[in-house]
Amino acid sequence: MIVKGKFLALGLSVSMLFLLFSCNQAPEKFCECLEASELVNINSNKVLSGNLDENSKRNLIEARKSQKTKCKDFQETKGEKMREWKKACAANKK
After folding, report:
1. Closest CA to 71 of 85, 58, 57, 56
2. How is residue 86 annotated by DSSP?
3. What are the domain boundaries of the chain?
4. Model confidence over 1-10: pLDDT tens digits?
5. What is the pTM (predicted TM-score) of this model?
6. Cα 72 to chain centroid, rounded
């Protein structure tokens, strides 16, 4: 009977750990969205700083298209959830 209780406690502990780690995970596509958004920021800054050559403009247009595609599923995600996911994406990069 005691052994059965130990396995039950171990099972609950493993379940709690799994739940804890799964709550801190961001969807992989969200991390891709963040990367695409960062590319838009980088290319926008280049254009705004006076680098108006055709290559810079083309890069910005392509980055915006990529961002629109990769971020479409997250348009209505609440800010608090996005901040949690952003932290999780940053932690996964390390």
Report:
1. 85
2. H
3. 27-93
4. 455 555 444 4
5. 0.69
6. 13
